[in-house]
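Researcher: Next entry: DKNYY family protein (Paraburkholderia acidicola).
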Amino acid sequence: MKIRAHRNLQAIVGLTLIAVALITGCFISLRDTHYDDIERGKEPLSGSFVRYDGHVYAVSAGDGYYRVVGADARTFKPLGVQGFAPLGQDAHAVYCGDQVISGLLPDAARVVAEGYVADAQRAWFCGQSVSDPAYRSWQALIGSVDERSANRVKYRRFPVVPLPRAHVASLHAINRVYVGDGVQLFYQGHLVVGADPANVQSMSYVTGEAKGRIDDAYIRDSRAVYYRGAQIEDAAAATFDIFRPDNNDNADTYGFDRASGRYYFNGQKFPASVDGVDAQSLRVLLTDRDHTNQDLFVNEHGIFFWDTQRNQLRFACVPPAPGLHTVDGLRSILTDGQSLYGTAAIEHWAQNRSSKTLESRETTIYRIPDVAPGQLQRLGDLQGKDASSLGTLWQAGSYLFYVPRFGQGNFFTHSIYAVADLQRLRATASSGGQIWSILSVVNQIKGVTVCVAKSEYR
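Model: Predicted structure:
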């Protein structure tokens, strides 16, 4: 009886908590934030500020508008040439988002770099809004959520970082996020310990579609490499290169030290082994986010990938054959010299009563039997309605294949497709029709899966 009573009490408590959560959610959602009012009537001043109904509001990413209390709407203007940093000023003060930068007079203010502002004696860094660790969810229940209000509850804040030790007269931009004064180096307002600012230089990508483009997060001096203000472990300045995956919508980057042969992800060094498997002497296999869901690296012991969900290097499989590499001119098609391998970017979703939830994303490698690399003969491009190329057509014996120019961003989740009716495919493509509906997935017909790299989102 005692056990049954205890279970009943647990059930009652559980149901009560669920009811409170539902009521709270409904209460919050029904409270009017007046966001749409500001949206309809605002006068944009920059990407960071708007003027509405005689007041100035700072734009806080993910949390709407914060009223800049005390700002003079008549004289307020963004501060800075590009206007991307949340810096503004009126006749009386300089602001970082909705905060006054105390002690900085507008007449003496000068922008040193994007987000950095100084007067004759002092300097500050002003950043985009970030989550406020002091915020508690219960505050939204008792405080104002009206975005027009000077007292609205905010779960984000604009960081203002003073640079008390900076030599202001010589402070200058190294790139968009680093500044130096000849003696010290700063990243987003914080001192970069051990850096030599007299010999620093920005870094650019060495391969891929982003080749030659500077990545502001990286910088090097005569002896070390730094990522977002922190020194990268064991990275030699003279031999360290950076690159990023093609078709990468995130800020994910890789580094490679040519001296040690070690790879890095966003400044983190790859481990020497994973689950007891040697992960040294790796080389890039595939890094194209439009055709794969994971970036793949390979050595003689395994195929590995950096799992961005777990933030660690993981082992995917033993290589199906030695010497695996991409086929020249064919993105995401692999060969070992004897066989051909296709790839697929697959997502698995769980369906509940009201919505779908992403469970996992994987990259599959599969062998295409009976087709050797030397058998492939190019038939030409598959042309679209405007005569642009949609990809290439290939023949290997009696088999016809289509290799799309685009990837999963255009619903082509596989790197190669079987073509059963070439005439119909060409007619559909030239008329602007949806060609993926008449293509066959090779690995469902005759492919043999040899490797799966999987990231879980549950």
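Model: Note for the record: The mean pLDDT is 88.
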